[in-house]
Each structure stands twice: as structure tokens, then as C-alpha cells.
Write a structure and sequence with these properties.
Elements: H1 2-5, E1 30-37, H2 43-53, H3 74-79, E2 86-92, E3 95-101, H4 109-118, E4 121-127, H5 134-145, E5 150-155, H6 164-175, E6 179-181, E7 183-187, E8 193-198, E9 203-206, E10 213-216, H7 220-239, H8 246-251, H9 258-271, E11 275-279, H10 288-298, E12 310-315, E13 323-328, E14 341-350, E15 354-363, E16 365-366, E17 371-376, E18 387-392, E19 396-400, E20 403-407, E21 410-411, E22 415-419, E23 429-432, E24 437-439, E25 449-455, H11 458-474, E26 479-482, E27 489-493, H12 496-508, E28 514-517, E29 524-527, E30 531-539, E31 546-556, E32 564-568, H13 580-593, E33 604-612, H14 620-637, E34 640-654, H15 658-667, E35 671-677, E36 682-690, H16 697-704, E37 710-720, H17 723-733
Parallel strand pairs: 1-3, 1-4, 4-5, 5-11, 6-11, 32-33
Antiparallel strand pairs: 2-3, 7-8, 8-9, 9-10, 12-13, 12-24, 14-15, 14-23, 15-22, 16-21, 17-18, 17-23, 19-20, 19-22, 25-27, 25-28, 26-27, 29-34, 30-31, 31-33, 34-36, 34-37, 35-36
């Protein structure tokens, strides 16, 4: 490392710029870096500063003005925050850096995980003004879950409320002892931040004049701070060293060469066991050269990052065209001459351009006009049927915001955009059609906020299905459901912000206007005691009339038994045999329609024991109508009641929020079944909660736990709805 060792090779901002991005560069000269951090931590501003510093753009844009390269979507400009994973490539010191900017808001965790899949290392961004909160810890855990090498960047050190030392201490407390600074910010003579002290080089990098100048550390306070922090840094590096004798030599008083420390530091960072901390003031350019050096020299290249698990895609039924996961495939590496293996990490749909896929190439070389195999599996539950197709690749480009720069090829280790892959969706595997492969999918969060929608007009309704299909293809965290019981079209979203973005895209991108309506929970009806009912359908209007009379008994099935049971006890032919199925058909139709509030009736036994028929006027339809009337009559006498679905809920929260969450569950008529510790500082709460009470729980839990809680839910059973709520539901269901 040049800056750390003190040679200053990286030079002042702009020195040695190479703004061209060459996708044909060797994988060893590529760095795929994902920006991770809480919303508002300064990720997008940092990306702009790096692009301007390296000459990829002429001047940095501003989030407030809607002029940044990465936040170019209309929704992002209006909301002034990132909601998409975007690629912003640049070059520095002969290294191509594919910088992936991710949203920091919890609703867009899907794009964060896609960015982690596409990258080989991460810049974890925290603001010197905000400190470390529970959401930031969750983001760190997301990186740790996939073993992502990280460096921590503390931004906004030039802000009036900045407190670098406090935020550093919070990072160390939250993320562990491997978090140690390489630089310390120092104030200028005017009091504002004026530069950085390099702890390994023992050098002051002075930015007070607007340009970067290398000076000696002369102030006594700076020397004292540097000495203490430098000792901690050296001990931290030696602790992670693979040379077991190094610590003993250091403790005995031997001076460890800086070159050895740098080499061990680079290895520890690439290994993901050491997390260097850097300080940056993006608007002033302070710390950008130092950060670029970490990216280009300490971060691992695609050559050292392990590939996800891969299996062969074995063709299934010739009729269905499906594919099954075959044998595990070993030996694949980041080799441009190897078998083609790539993955769609992000899909966007443009009404004019069509589908654009952001693709990470893990092996082989992707070329325009080549025919390849597109395989997607394992997401049927989210509305993504398994699919296997051969498609021709369209144009390859390197995106920089809205701009798309043509590429002749995209080699192993790099990232590009591919146009017009008609069936490719986020998470799909691209491979050679002669040897189709399937990559193990990455974990996607479960959408838990249901939003019911209806088209605003007939014209909107005609376009709605196609538009929703495009949204589903590009966003695997969204789930589309046509509820068979409530007959509502439901979008399952990650939260309110996610729902707002989806509805905004329907309107602005596809010209489809929809309205949100109250979500109908699939209640059911049943009876609580036995009762008899009469169904009489006798009409004589001249000519052929209608005649059908039946007597039935309704009773509840044994507790916990769902469904419907029909019993025929007709004797003597009072109801002809050909009309008994007609009575059952009518009863079933009325069960579907309900008798209290329009919900299906279940857990009922219906016994047909008497009736009358007419030799001329009786018919199938006459007895169907009689069966419906008989069920209505009997059910009204059998103390009908409503049943509500109850979900089994598992909630994971930090220990400090357990009391608040359990109190909130109690207010939702929930029953807490138990708690158990999970890891350090977290508790899992198991409960049973009525579905009526948790339709918006993803929003409410975020509020109660300050954004740190998560939960899963699953249908358990139906239970009687309390009488006061049942009366309200029944009243609301009556026609005005």
C-alpha cells in the first residue's frame, strides 16, 4: 500500500486518473465493491465523490437536487433516497472498480442481498453524525452472513455535529475488535477537519489548502493520538497474521517492518477477519485517495472470491420443458476461457427499451448475439414459475446512471448490463446451452405486508396483468396473489416504502392507475349447535312451474374438523334419487356464499331426512334452490358464528425490545407461547396471533423495535371470532 506506507503514490485528488472502464481487463485488476449502510449514511454521496475523483464524471451530483448518477430513477429523484441497486463503474490506478450502490432502507433488503451476491467485498458506510443503531447492526449481520470482506468508512467527518471517536468506539463495540482505524481525522488551524493522519506511515495528509499535501505530524496532541492508535492497529494486524512468531517478536521489542504489516493487513482484509476504518469528507475530497488505495490494493479480486454452489441443469419433461437440479459441479473458477456461468442480479423493465438485466459473470465470457441457456428455479411460491429457455443475448453495455456504454464482451469477474433477455428474471442463471448450469439462489426476505389493489378503470384493468408480471420479474421480494377466498388481488410487499414504490412504478412507468382497498382477511363461518331447516321452492306461474321441498338438519363437525359432510337419510323415495345430488349441490353453493357475512361455511354436517317432490314441476334447479333455502333456514337457528385465521408467529428482536413487543402482542389478542435466546443480545418470541391483528405488523414491529425486529408467520388454524368483532363484521357486510 502506497499511501499507508508513506510514499504518497496515489497523489492528490485526480492524480493518475483513468476514466475509461475496460471490461476486457484481467480479473485480477477488477474490484466488485458494494456500498452498504443505513439510509442517510452518505453512500450515494460517497459514490459521486469517487466517480468525480477518478474522472468518471466531471462533477459530483447532489441527492437533494436529484442529480446523482446512481439515483436516476424518477422515484428516487422524488423521494431523495436510493431504492434500487445500481452499478457505477470507474477506474483507478489501472484497476476497474464496479461500485454497487444499495438502498439503506429495510424495505429494499432484496436489492442489498443482490448487491452482496454480485460483489466480492463491501464498503460499510456509517455517518460520523449519527452513530450506530440497531438497523446498522442488522446490515452488518447481512454482510457477515455471506462472509463478505469489509472496510468501514465513516463519512461526514466535516459536519458540525461529527464525532469520529464516538462513532469509531460504537463500531468497535458493535462489530468486534477487528475494527481498527488506519487514519485519524485532524482539525485544521481554523478548527474544521483539515486532513488525516496515516497511522502506519506516521504521516499527515493535509487537505486544508484544498489539495492533498504530505507533511510530518508535528502537533503534540496529534502525535500522542497517533502513537496510541498506531499501537492498537499494529497489535490488531499482528493478531490476524498467519505468522505465529510475529506477536512474540513484537512483544519482545522488535520493530516489525511496515511492509510486513501491510502484507498481513491486506491478507486479513481479503480473508474477512479484519475491518480497517477510514474517514471521509466527500464534499471536500478528504480521504478519497486513501479509500481508493484500500479498494485497489487491499480488497480481494474476483480471483480469490469463492463461487456460489453450482449444479448441472438436467432437462426434465419434454412436455413441460422444466429442468431439475443435477449433479454438483466442482472446479469452476473465475476464468474467461472457462464454461459460461453468470447470474442476473437485477432486472429492470423499460416501456421503450424492454427488459434490461444486470449480470455478474462468474466464469467464461459473455458476448453479444450469443445463444445461452436461462434457468430459474426455486421461487414458485413467490409467483416465479420454474423456467428453462434458450435465448439470444442482446447488446452488452456498461451502465453509468442512465448512460449505457457499449461493450464488445464481458469476461469472468466483471458486471455488465444485457438487453432484451425476454424471460430472464432476477436470480436466474445464464450458462452455455450445450452445458446448462444452475446456481444456488441467494436468500430473499419474505414480503409480509399485504396491499389489496383494484384497477381504477377498465382501461387500467386491461393493462394491469402485463404490468404486474413485469414488476414481479424484476423484484423477487414482491409476491403477487389472487386470493381465491376473498377474490382480491394482493401485492405482498416488504413495507410501506416498498408498496409506495411499486404503485408509483405502475402509474409512472406503465401508465396503470390502481387504488388500494381494505384487505379482506379470509374469515369462515360455521354453526355451534344442531338445528333443522326447511327449504321450500314452490312456484306456479302458468305452464311448467318449480317444486322442491326438503328438510335438513345442520350440526357442527367434531372440534378441529374442517370441510363439509353430506348425509342422505331419505327413505320411501319422498325425494327422488335423481334430485338428492341437486339438494347437495344447492347446499354446497350456499355454504360457499355463507349466511352471516358472506364468508364460506365450514366444519358442518348436513343431513337430508325428508322432502316432497312433484311428478311434473320438480327439477334439478328446483331442488338446488330448495337446498340453498334449507341451509339458510337451519344455519340461522344453529347459532352461526364467524371463524378467524390464527397465525403462528416467530419474532426476533434485540433483548431491550422484548417487553415492548410482548405488550404489543397482548394488545393484538396474541398468545405468547415462549421465548428463547438467539445468539448474543437477541430473543425469539413465539406467539399465536389472529391474522386480523397482524395485517400491518411489518410496519408496527418496525416502529416498536426501532427497525431492528423481524418476524415470520404461517397459518395455524381458524378460531371463533369474538362476538363483538363478529357483530361488527356482520354489520359491515350487510348491503346498504
Amino acid at each position: 500500500m502506497t499511501v499507508i506506507s508513506g510514499s504518497g503514490k496515489a497523489g492528490p485528488a485526480g492524480a493518475g486518473r483513468d476514466s475509461g472502464v475496460d471490461q476486457a481487463v484481467h480479473a485480477g485488476r477488477i474490484r466488485n465493491v458494494v456500498l452498504v449502510g443505513h439510509s442517510g449514511s452518505g453512500k450515494t454521496t460517497l459514490a459521486e465523490a469517487l466517480l468525480a475523483h477518478t474522472g468518471a464524471i466531471t462533477r459530483p451530483g447532489r441527492v437533494e437536487d436529484g442529480t446523482t448518477v446512481s439515483d436516476f430513477d424518477d422515484v428516487e429523484i422524488r423521494q431523495k433516497r436510493s431504492v434500487n441497486l445500481t452499478l457505477t463503474p470507474f477506474a483507478a490506478d489501472g484497476v476497474t472498480v464496479n461500485l454497487l450502490d444499495t438502498p439503506g432502507y429495510a424495505d429494499f433488503t432484496g436489492d442489498l442481498r443482490a448487491g452482496l451476491r454480485a460483489a466480492d467485498c463491501a464498503l460499510f458506510v456509517a455517518a460520523a453524525t449519527d452513530g450506530i443503531d440497531g438497523v446498522t447492526r442488522l446490515l452488518w449481520d447481512e454482510c457477515a452472513a455471506v462472509g463478505m470482506p469489509r472496510a468501514v468508512v465513516i463519512t461526514k467527518i466535516d459536519h458540525g455535529r461529527a464525532d469520529f471517536e464516538t462513532v469509531l468506539a460504537e463500531c468497535q463495540g458493535a462489530f468486534g475488535e477487528g475494527v481498527l482505524p488506519l487514519y485519524l481525522p485532524v482539525p485544521s488551524s481554523a478548527g474544521a477537519v483539515g486532513g488525516l493522519i496515516g497511522l502506519l506511515s506516521e504521516t499527515l495528509y493535509d487537505y486544508s489548502s484544498g489539495a492533498r499535501a504530505i507533511k510530518a505530524v508535528t502537533r503534540a496532541t496529534d502525535t500522542e493520538r497517533m502513537a496510541s492508535a498506531r499501537d492498537s492497529l499494529i497489535e490488531g494486524i499482528i493478531t490476524e497474521s498467519e505468522d505465529e512468531t510475529l506477536m512474540e517478536r513484537y512483544l519482545s521489542g522488535e520493530t516489525v517492518p511496515t511492509s510486513v504489516l501491510i502484507e498481513d493487513l491486506e491478507k486479513a482484509v481479503a480473508r474477512g477477519s479484519f475491518y480497517p476504518v477510514l474517514a471521509v469528507a466527500s464534499p471536500l475530497g478528504i480521504g478519497l485517495a486513501e479509500l481508493l488505495e484500500i479498494i485497489t490494493q487491499a480488497f480481494p479480486s474476483p480471483l480469490t472470491h469463492p463461487l456460489p454452489a453450482v449444479s448441472s441443469a438436467v432437462s426434465g419433461s419434454a412436455v413441460s420443458g422444466s429442468a431439475l437440479s443435477g449433479e454438483d459441479v466442482d472446479g469452476l473458477a473465475c476464468d474467461p476461457n472457462g464454461p459460461l456461468l453468470a447470474e442476473v442480479v437485477k432486472t429492470t423493465s423499460d416501456p421503450y427499451v424492454g427488459r434490461i438485466s444486470l449480470v455478474r459473470v462468474f466464469s467464461g465470457t459473455l458476448r453479444p448475439d450469443a445463444v445461452l441457456h436461462v434457468s430459474g428455479h426455486g421461487r414458485v411460491s413467490r409467483g416465479h414459475p420454474d423456467h428453462d429457455n434458450d435465448e439470444r443475448v442482446g447488446a452488452l453495455t456498461s451502465p453509468l446512471g442512465k448512460a449505457q456504454r457499449p461493450l464488445s464482451s464481458c469476461q469472468a469477474g466483471s458486471i455488465c448490463a444485457v438487453a432484451k433477455l425476454a424471460t430472464a428474471e432476477t436470480g436466474d442463471t445464464l450458462s452455455a446451452r450445450e452445458a446448462p448450469l444452475l446456481m444456488e439462489p441467494w436468500s430473499m426476505p419474505e414480503p409480509l405486508l399485504p396491499v389489496a389493489i383494484v384497477a381504477r378503470s377498465k382501461a387500467d384493468d386491461d393493462k394491469l396483468a402485463a404490468s404486474l408480471a413485469r414488476l414481479v420479474a424484476e423484484d423477487p421480494t414482491m409476491r403477487l396473489e389472487m386470493n381465491a377466498e376473498t377474490h382480491q388481488l394482493v401485492l405482498w410487499c416488504m413495507g410501506e416504502a416498498h408498496a409506495d414504490v411499486l404503485l408509483d412504478r405502475l402509474s409512472s412507468r406503465y401508465g396503470v392507475a390502481v387504488d388500494t382497498v381494505s384487505l379482506r382477511v379470509p374469515l369462515r363461518e360455521t354453526v355451534s349447535c344442531a338445528a333443522r331447516g326447511l327449504g321450500r321452492n314452490v312456484k306456479q306461474t302458468g305452464g311448467h312451474g318449480e317444486f322442491g321441498i326438503c328438510h335438513i338438519e345442520v350440526e357442527p363437525l367434531p372440534s378441529g374438523t374442517a370441510g363439509f359432510e353430506f348425509v342422505d337419510k331419505i327413505v320411501g323415495g319422498v325425494v327422488p334419487r335423481q334430485f338428492i345430488p341437486s339438494v347437495e349441490k344447492g347446499v354446497r353453493a350456499q355454504l360457499e356464499a355463507g349466511v352471516v357475512a358472506g364468508y364460506p361455511m365450514t366444519g358442518v354436517r348436513v343431513t337430508l331426512f325428508d322432502g316432497k317432490a312433484h311428478p311434473v314441476d320438480s327439477s334439478d334447479m328446483a331442488f338446488q334452490k330448495a337446498g340453498r333455502a334449507a341451509l339458510r333456514d337451519a344455519a340461522e337457528k344453529a347459532s352461526p358464528m364467524l371463524l378467524e385465521p390464527v397465525d403462528q408467529v416467530s419474532i426476533l428482536v434485540p433483548d431491550e425490545y422484548v417487553g415492548a413487543v410482548m405488550s404489543d402482542l397482548s394488545g393484538r389478542r396474541g398468545r405468547v407461547l415462549g421465548t428463547s435466546p438467539v445468539g448474543v443480545g437477541r430473543t425469539q418470541i413465539r406467539a399465536e396471533v389472529p391474522e386480523l391483528e397482524i395485517c400491518r405488523y411489518s410496519i408496527d414491529l418496525r416502529s416498536v423495535s426501532h427497525g431492528t425486529g423481524s418476524f415470520t408467520r404461517g397459518y395455524l388454524r381458524h378460531e371463533p371470532l369474538p362476538s363483538h368483532l363478529a357483530a361488527k363484521v356482520a354489520a359491515d357486510s350487510r348491503p346498504v
